[in-house]
Design brief:
By secondary structure, the protein is α/β, with parallel strands linked by helices. The chain contains nine helices and 14 strands. It folds into two domains: 190 residues, DHBP synthase; 76 residues, no CATH class. The longest helix has 17 residues. It binds threonylcarbamoyladenylate (TXA) and magnesium ion. The site of magnesium ion has 3 residues, from loops.
Length: 307
């Protein structure tokens, strides 16, 4: 990725308009929320979401939280049962994230959910994130705005320290109120499970299946078929996912572009899983930049399943 000049603008109508313009153009922008600073991009644009991973230098793909402005918007993205409705009424806008079944036709890039049929949603309370959501008019995917392995930023200066030169803009709204990421609840089974403790304490204890670290999610999406990596060509019983000069039955990126490949990854895997061929082969992906995250996910998908 080419180094860019990172601007820091104090919150205000002009800064919000500039942030919305950049997000519309496919960039990721740092914005304060009531919990921590988030690195926000258009949740419907797979390459923009790939840009979040590239900027953070994350070694893998973890599903991201999607931020919405209204309940109406939330309902186009996820299915709310009565319990989810009640939690949203009670705690939104605020530092609570709900993991819910993804709605049919949700306008969300598959890289956001890392291919999962569920989605983490929250309606933030901070006026900066709310103004930005209104200005963009689309849901925003936003993990914490820190480089991978660094702690979550609670001031614009923290974001600058870890992402200077990697993103075009930081909106400076001062210190965040909570300084701690949102509470995450999963409502995808019949019950309510606490996946991450946070500012909203509902008296639940951490669920056994909770995510401890990126990539540790028990329910990570993986195809059901055997996968062969670094394949220069496909065999008769394989669906070949190509990259660059390896054309394949489908391709992650014909031009060998890693941003495009990351954006397409989960769709191509789902497609391969649904194909007639009983096996999947995947062309070699270079291990540089986003390629490392893609390869991390592919190695996990190819590893023998346990349980
Ligand atoms: O306070 C916050 O939530 C901040 C601000 C910026 O909103 N955002 C944040 O996002 O902490 P992030 O991406 O760093 O954390 C997302 C967490 C991860 O632990 C991820 O595994 C979990 O949410 N998550 C996302 N989608 C999920 C899903 N479908 N099922 C289970 N866990 C999910
Ligand atoms: Mg984080």
């Amino acid at each position: 990725m080419s180094a860019q000049n990172t601007r820091v603008l104090p919150l205000g109508p002009e800064a919000i308009a500039e942030a919305a313009r950049l997000i519309g153009a496919g960039f990721a922008v740092a914005v304060p929320t009531e919990t921590v600073y988030g690195l926000a991009a258009d949740a419907g644009n797979g390459e923009a979401v790939a840009g979040i991973y590239e900027a953070k230098g994350r070694p893998g793909f973890n599903p991201l939280i999607v931020h919405v402005e209204t309940m109406e918007q939330a309902r186009t993205i996820a299915r709310f049962n009565s319990e989810a409705e009640a939690l949203a009424v009670r705690h939104w806008p605020g530092p609570l994230t709900l993991v819910l079944p993804l709605a049919d036709g949700a306008p969300i890039a598959s890289l956001v959910t890392a291919g999962l049929p569920t989605i983490a949603l929250r309606m933030p309370a901070h006026p900066a994130m709310r103004d930005l959501l209104r200005a963009v008019g689309r849901p925003l995917a936003a993990p914490s705005a820190n480089a991978s392995g660094r702690i979550s930023p609670t001031r614009a200066a923290h974001v600058l320290t870890s992402l200077d030169g990697r993103i075009p803009l930081i909106l400076d709204g001062g210190a965040t109120e909570h300084g701690l990421e949102s509470t995450i609840l999963a409502l995808t089974g019949g019950d309510v499970r606490l996946l991450r403790p946070g500012p909203i304490d509902l008296g639940l204890t951490l669920s056994a299946g909770a995510i401890e670290a990126p990539g540790q999610l028990a329910s990570h999406y993986a195809p059901t078929k055997p996968i062969r990596l670094n394949a220069p060509s496909g065999r008769g019983d394989e669906w070949l996912i190509g990259f660059g000069s390896v054309a394949g039955d489908s391709t992650l990126s014909a031009s060998g572009n890693l941003m495009e490949a990351a954006a397409n990854l989960f769709e191509r895997l789902h497609e391969a899983d649904a194909a007639d061929e009983p096996r999947i082969a995947i062309a070699r992906i270079p291990d540089s930049g986003l390629g490392a995250a893609i390869n991390d996910r592919l190695r996990r998908a190819a590893a023998p399943r346990t349980g």
